[in-house]
Amino acid sequence: MQKILILSVGGSSEPIINAIKRYKPEFVYFFCSSGPKGSAVTVDGPGDPCGDKRRAKCPECGHQFHLGNPKGKSIVVQTGLKEDQYEIITIDDPDDLNKCYSQLVAMARSIEEKHPGAQVIANYTGGTKTMSVAMALVGTMTEEWDLSLNKGPRLDIIKVKSGDTPVIVNKWQIFAEQRLESVGEALRKYDYALAEAIVSQLLFHPLEPGFQKRLLRIRQVCEAFNGWDRFDHRKALDLLSPYGKDFSSYIVILKRILKRTKSKGYELVADLFNNAERRSTQKHYDDAVARLYRATELFAQLRLEKTRGCKLGQVTMEELPGDLRPEYSEYAKEEGKLLLGLREDYELLHKLQDPVGIEFKENEGRILGALTYRNSSIYAHGITPLEEKDYKLVSGRLKGFVLKAARKIQVDLKIEQLPRDEILGR
Hints:
This protein is α/β, with parallel strands linked by helices. 49% of the residues lie in helices and 10% in strands.
């Protein structure tokens, strides 16, 4: 694998030279300050650009002397780099964080194009503090870069003296913490699939055991609620079960939906209403209205199942009172099954003098008016894109009707909405 080394260059050349000798890269990018007093000259300038030009005066005799060795050939001379093995990237204001950051981002894109698949090591030992901060930021946010820093014995607080060694810095903990912000943003939109994908990617990197355990937990919980969001309730229950202490209320709901514990039998209707609300949060209003329609239709089907023993969505002629059979013969298909839609289900409940059917008849005009929005969407018979105001109108009428009808038969349809970014803190 080709090795690319990026170096922020300051006044001291020793750490730069040590890093090049240690990593032996095929290509080096020098990130330098420009201008007559900039650091670019130390890379390949003539004479002794890396010599220590600092002087001091003896307080007794007044003689001036060099604080260090004034001799010091350029970095490329001392490391043996050829002209086609390096590139100098300059910044005119090395204390401008935005400029430094933008320059490095452009460099990252260039490296990706010129050296695809290469190992990139960014050493931020040299340069101004701003240059180092910018390199650390880009290195942390760019998954392809490894960060490196020269370490060695410190005899004072000024700088590392001779004997420094470049070492790889574990950036992944910081990177993962930062990426959790993106996970939280996805969860606030109920996008469990995206949250799960981000966390899964983070788990490919070396992380502290405790933090890794936390991510594993977050990933599984996101997978569970992603399954729930797609109506895969069995998968959701299996994945949530190990975390019953923190998600007990959701586990109870799942068991009721799956009929593994005592329930009213209408929990799936409430689940559909919650799902519609989540789609609305994501601004998928056509999808949201389709779920409102299905919840309303399902409520009638479940009511017929519970009061007449009809198989869900499959009313048969034999299950009707004798006096109603002639009227419904036009709906009969094979094996005596009746082909009934939402309106016909509620009409039947009304003819059966069921409280739900009676409530429907009292609100029929408003309900049918709301259904025209669903029928005009791409999810039904039309191509009209629905907007937030349309969703709110349909929700107010359909959900409002179902909740009122449910109260008449003493059924509580309210269940807890799925969690969002609180998943991260559990």
